Amino acid sequence: MIAVAAGTNRIDPYLIPALDGVAYGLLVFVAASGLVFCFGVANILNLAHGLLYAIGGYTAAALLDGGWVSLALALAVGVLAAAATGVLLAGLLTPVATGNHLSQALLTFGVALAGGSLLVAGFGPDNPQVQVPAALEGSVMVAGHRYAAYRLVFIVVAAVLAAALYLVVRRTRAGMLVRAAVDDPEMVACLGVSPARIRAGVLAAAGALAGAAGVLGAPIIGPGTGTADTVLLLSLVVVVLGGLGSMAGTLLAALAIGEIQTLGVALLPSAAPFLLFAAMAAVLAVRARGLAGRWRAA
Amino acid sequence: MRGEVIRRVRGGIAALVLVGLVVAPWVVDDYTTAILARTLALALVGVSVALLTGVAGMPTLGQTAPYAAGAYACAVVGSRVSDVGVVQLVVAAAAGALLAALTVPLVVHARGVIVLMITLAIGELVVIVLGRWRSVTGGTDGLAGIPAVRPFWGLPALANDQARYLYALVVVATLVGAVLVLLRTRAGLVLRAGRDDETRLRASGHRVALHLSGAHIAAGAIAGAAGSLLVVAQQYISPADFGFDTSALLLLGVVIGGTASVGGALVGAALVIAVRDWLFGVLPGHAPLVLGALFVATVYLLPTGVNRARGRLRPPGAPALQPEQPAAHDQATVAELHR
């Protein structure tokens, strides 16, 4: 914003970080929307959410060989594997008392710990290289700057994914059920929809979203031992910033985090570690009561 | 009568454990003594987790944040200002309390699972800051070569593992005693009452948010003091000491110990940390896998973890209609307060 006021010459060096921020933000949005569903619909703090992303990332690293077919295959396998892990989580959570958040958090943490260990055992402790399709390996010119073609295409694909997600939640019967379960889970149960089935469906959807984000985002936030933690943290901050009320809030929060992580670092390198903190504190300070009230209702 | 017997037995067991802890450094080798000293520090953090989770009703995954603040404050003061233990303890507790006070606005209006989420984010962000703020924290390499501490002005520096362990034991015993006394006062009663029936307490004119802020800051101070003990025990700290897994282990320990019991938190946290250290010793490489499986198994084995009465009152799969409604006997705390 400061740069805009000062004229075009001042914008120029920050254009690429800002564009990176959009790519990063959309990636975080797709990953975090799964956590938002888990949280808003099933009222579960899923600490294994980062694991679901990591599964997608490792699948991409293992299957991608530079061709389009391998990308489609990796996407299918990654989404299925992560969704299956989500269903497994739902199964493990079934006997845990409803509303016992401590037990749910501890159980999902155990799954995250064990799953992360299995991934390292299967794929090795080093961060694997991810090969993007050969056609997207080069760079394109954006307003006089070279920019990685893959990221540009990723922005388009992720925007399409976000739009599709919005349509599914707004326009389909499944989306209606999800929104109804956020508002009044008991009424939905009275309508004859089993809460256990909703929970399994939500965790599978969360897994599918995180898995898709993991495969497509592997060249941006690559698979590695710290990936699961990073993605979980970013998703949690998105939930804190955006609340559970609307998808628009989630999208805005994710884009804000993307810009903080890229443009913020370019503008204020020394303050970079504190910026996420500051954003969280600012948002919660401004609307702490309103946010908490809505969350308690949800 | 029966309560009297149980209380005597519990007192006897506590005394036996304390005696065992005092003589422990002469029974086991130096390496184990050093591990025990570190476990004591973590058990003290466990007490602060129990204070928030069980007593105040704010489940937390972020007590590693004030713990880290205290540890780094102590390390910096120990290297540059003073090697007196009392000074370091006070500085570390103040640093923990300050960080907790700064994060009060983030947590005080949230409840339940929201607190878990926000505190987890705070803890993780603190670890990121520790890793990047190189000029003060030494980045991911951490801080090493912290000089040996002397407990009080004029006393000799603690040169061996036994002395450091006993110093940690004295500090932990003193602070735990202070917490136990504090919980017996009206402040402890108000906290428990707020946990059991917040609406009623609010309606009778108590400022619940103020009590919770006080508990949060006090727990931060305790965790900060524990951070100082970690520095004394290890003489080296790095961001890896304060990761998300440490928070989760401590929360598991506190839940095993009965959530609201200070003694239970000490025993539970020490047990969980000991199991982790042992697993990483005997199973290098596969320890996280076994540890994760143990987490899941513990949740299933805990009496409060699983719906035991599922089929009795309602059909399986039906939602619990009032999952967080306090049970009738919980109202006793509130009633006691009004007497």
Structure description:
Chain A is 77% helix and 3% strand. Chain A has helices at 2-6, 8-42, 49-63, 68-93, 101-123, 149-171, 173-183, 185-190, 195-217, 227-242, 247-267, 272-297, and strands spanning 139-142, 145-148. The radius of gyration of chain A is 19 Å and the shape is globular. In chain A, strand 1 and strand 2 (145-148) form a beta hairpin. Chain A is built from 12 helices and 2 strands. With 298 residues, chain A is mainly alpha-helical. Chain A has a two-stranded antiparallel ribbon with strand order 1-2. Chain A has one domain (2-130, 145-297): ABC transporter involved in vitamin B12 uptake, BtuC (Orthogonal Bundle). Residues 1-7 and 289-298 of chain A have low confidence and may be disordered. Mean pLDDT of chain B is 84; it is low at 308-329. Chain B has 15 helices and 2 strands. Chain B is globular, with a radius of gyration of 21 Å. Helices cover 72% and strands 1% of the residues of chain B. Chain B has helices at residues 2-27, 30-55, 64-80, 85-107, 113-132, 134-137, 161-184, 186-196, 198-203, 208-234, 244-256, 262-282, 287-301, 310-313, 331-338, and strands at residues 143-144, 236-237. Chain B has a domain at 35-242. Classes of the chains: A mainly alpha (298), B mainly alpha (339). The interface between A and B is large, with 58 and 57 residues.
